[in-house]
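Kindly go through the following sequence and its backbone structure tokens. Advise at your convenience whether the structure tokens fit the sequence:

___
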Amino acid sequence: YCCCCCCNRTPWMPSPKKRRQDRVLQAKHAAKIAVRVWKSVFMYCVCREKSGSVSPALAADAYTDQAEASSPAEPECPELVKPTDIHFLVINLDRSPQRLARMREAFARLNLPPFERIPGVEVTADTVNQHTPPRLSPGVKLADYGTCLAHHRAWEAVYRGPHRWAIVLEDDATLLDTVDLQDMPLVPKAADIVLLRASTTLEHEIVCNKTEVRKTTWGYGMVGYLISRAGAHRMIKGAQKGFRGPLDGHIWYSGNAIYTTTKNYVDHPPCSNPCPTSIRTYLNGELEVEPD
């Protein structure tokens, strides 16, 4: 049950190149303003020093402050929290009992607690207008919209459940023997989602030196992620009006705070276009044979 849409990006999404160009222009503009401010402060102190009103030491301090301001500073850490009492949810279509069985076997092998099954949503042309949140664009394929609805179900389960933290997995996720899914790194309290497959995030930036997670602004795939109860509430609010694109496009434009780990905590079978292991791809009519 894969929601990967990296090869199915819809026209309303700005390209990664355009997004990078916008951020570069914003950073250059901010840097120019900062330089002008510090130059003004420095020249003021120099003039006051020459007139005898400011000590040479104060002028030297101003020069030092200017130099430090122009050099990269260590980012200030936001409030960080350690996820505990993590609940697990697995999204699974009724048509894929064999995938559910494989996930149960993987959980048992890794001594993970039992997970909660979230029924997947299979949307048809007859039922597409009966769901909420609505599909906002007919360009969103039915199976992509169904994926959005299934994850929305997962968010609702997390928000209404007793656990403060949860990990949401699609039923074709590969669980790794090299990591402990119950031992997550420190994450920003304001994070809505922490993606657990770092290799599919394309743009990210350092948060601070006290956490290994990164703020991410572009990527693909929602095969596995960490989410808090508060984050689930914010994700639900971000989707109130509906879905205008596939889920792994929606999250970048919904106003939510998305982060990623620096290593893979989960993985996914190799994919091409079309992805041979994806039920979503099959339901979209891009494969002739339904994947196992």
About this structure: The chain has seven helices and twelve strands. The mean pLDDT is 83.
